[in-house]
Amino acid sequence: MTNIDGSVKLTEVRTDWTRAEIGTLFDLSFDELVYQAQTVHRAHHAAGQIQLCTLLSIKTGGCPEDCGYCSQSVKADSGVEATKLMDVQAVLQKAAEAADAGSRRFCMGAAWRNPKDRDMPAIVQIVQGVRAMGMETCMTLGMLTPSQADMLADAGLDYYNHNIDTSPERYNEIITTRTMEDRLDTLAEVRRAGINVCSGGILGMGETRADRVGFIHTLATLPQHPESVPVNALVPVKGTVLGDMLADTPLAKIDDIEFVRTIAVARITMPMSMVRLSAGRESMSEATQALCFMAGANSIFTGDKLLTAANAGDDKDAALMAKLGLRAMEAEEPLRACKALEAAE
């Protein structure tokens, strides 16, 4: 255990979890699991603080990938129209609005399999401009070449998001145009370039608990844990493979208690990571969200929209945080603080 000053050594954080150990955590009684998760959380993170983030789609639709959950795939009949990359100044205006609303982190997504080199100068300008506002930056642009990762690092990008989505065993049932190894290779390239890693996945895609164990195991046994772990609940969109398959069925929404269990296991196995309660929150009750915070989630996306999906909205989030006595996070994220401390030694 450690205090929130980052005094633990990164080498002391376990990356050798077994699937059996993770399965045992899932099987704990709910009160014991949440107690353990909250204990771990308080050892590494400021209690009662939630990081507020904003997510913007800077290039929507037309993605050649066939992700079964995604309304932006060209394979989906979701009605999402393809757009070009947003103008740099338009993105910076949105970032300024997010900062005024209290966000400390600005995340940007582009519906690409991978960025073209011709797009990189604009991407670099966007990163530099958002960072100049004093906000953390995160981007998800698909797979990266080494030179592209280096350009983003040189621009000062704080985080790169590249979700693994689900367990290795279930991956090719969700996506066929790339492999789990493609995902892991990009994460390794991002790490090599010195950018913080943001990687999580989606629950409620018809997976089993064994898949959820495999999903957590994949992240918790990376050479270094992701600094950021977004956990999403599937938003079934009509016209997508999974949206059409799971609509109006019990599988269309993951059980709330099982969702909270997954948050808790992520917190215990990746104690210093930011666990982000991401998509699907608009359909969760206040009680479910409160349980997620008790289980160790300490970051949310604010605003009315997440890429193309609806979100809870700033006013609703402010009311919930006031009701729960939570406040916006101001401290440095533990893993980043720890790495900075060790680099200075």
What kind of sheet is the major sheet?
A: 10 strands, parallel
Please state the structural category: alpha/beta
User: Roughly what is the average pLDDT, rounded to an integer?
Assistant: 87
Q: Tell me the series of helices and strands, N- to C-terminal.
A: HHEHEHEHEHHEEHEHHEHEEEHEH
Measured between the Cα atoms of the first and last residue, the distance is: 20 Å
**Secondary structure tally, helices:** 13
- Residues in helix, %: 40-55%
Task: Give the structure's gist in a few sentences.
The chain has 345 residues and is an alpha/beta fold.
What does this structure look like?
By secondary structure, this protein is α/β, with parallel strands linked by helices. Helices cover 41% and strands 15% of the residues. It has 13 helices and twelve strands. It has helices at 19-27, 30-44, 88-100, 120-132, 146-155, 171-174, 180-193, 209-220, 241-246, 256-269, 286-294, 314-324, 334-344, and strands at residues 49-59, 105-110, 136-140, 159-161, 196-198, 201-203, 228-233, 274-277, 299-302, 305-306, 309-310, 327-328. The strands form two sheets. Strands 1, 2, 3, 4, 5, 6, 7, 8, 9 and 12 form a ten-stranded parallel beta sheet that branches. A two-stranded antiparallel sheet has the order 10-11. α11 (286-294) links the parallel β8 (274-277) and β9 (299-302). α8 packs parallel to α10 (256-269) and α10 packs parallel to α11 (286-294). The longest helix is centred in the first third of the chain and has 15 residues, at 30-44. The protein is globular.
